[in-house]
């Protein structure tokens, strides 16, 4: 993207102030934040209601005040596709509103251990005020769930020490027995701009695992490595009725003259079948049939049965659904 954007997640603290190099401050307030009240209900930026789940760097460059209202249950805040970053949603998604909130799986029951045999649970307590300093500059942290979880993203929060103690390169691995590991993500030469700064990273090919292990392979040059928080983010279950939403979009585009009747029937029939797999939670079948839907779209487009605009709009929505269920 040409403009830097930052994803907005659940704050790790009740109040924090970030001092910018230009002398301005970013003030983050979440007065009722707690382990129970971990879901964003609403947000005001500089006193005005803010519904997008991301914020642009330009909006923070001269300082800003972010006031969060937190609650114990998931809300619809930031879930409309119009509120999602372009990096998280298709380029054109008219007609759909999908709630795709990510949750921190480590909020559920599980066990954390680390290479120093210290208090690894400090990294999973939803506050950056408790941090863990590893004597070894290349530590590992492991989290074991009581049941398999499919993490789609993860976050790391830098500590309050010098940036020489920040993780710089690392490997995230997954396992179902704690012995045989698969590499999920690998990063090199990463930096953390501020102290107690949270960065999010996407797992490109997520799968469900009972064990996750973060192995730090290099830091900023210090003798030790410090982290304040680690999160493993995913969806408890994919959003419901996405196929029905795309089917409604097909009808809308037909009414606007962007689709010929010959294509409408075939596309709707295909999506009706996908709806059944969606309700049954059959992820592999949803992905397989939505890939077939994309092939069907391509055929109709090449035959002149739908406009360029309709083709790209439906394709983008189909790709997004595949990503949600993959």
Overview of the molecule:
The protein is α+β, with helices and mostly antiparallel strands and 326 residues long. The chain has three domains: 1-72, GH92 mannosidase fold; 104-234, Sandwich (Jelly Rolls); 242-325. Helix content is 23%, strand content 31%. The chain is built from five helices and 17 strands. It has helices at residues 57-60, 242-255, 261-280, 283-302, 308-325, and strands at 5-7, 15-19, 25-29, 39-45, 48-49, 54-56, 64-71, 103-104, 110-114, 132-134, 140-150, 153-158, 167-175, 182-187, 198-202, 208-219, 225-234. The protein has a five-stranded mixed beta sheet, with no helix packed on it. Strands 8, 10, 12, 15 and 17 form a five-stranded antiparallel beta sheet that branches. The protein has a five-stranded antiparallel beta sheet with strand order 9-11-16-13-14, with no helix packed on it. A hairpin with a 5-residue loop joins strand 2 and strand 3 (25-29). The chain is globular. Residues 2-72 form the Glycosyl hydrolase family domain. InterPro entries: FIMAH_dom (IPR054470), Galactose-bd-like_sf (IPR008979), Glyco_hydro_92 (IPR012939), PNGase (IPR050883). It holds the Pfam family Glyco_hydro_92. Residues 244-322 form the FIMAH domain. One of its GO terms (molecular function) is peptide-N4-(N-acetyl-beta-glucosaminyl)asparagine amidase activity.
Keywords:
326 residues; alpha+beta; GH92 mannosidase fold; Jelly Rolls; 3 domains; five-stranded mixed β-sheet; five-stranded antiparallel β-sheet; 17 strands; 23% helix; 31% strand
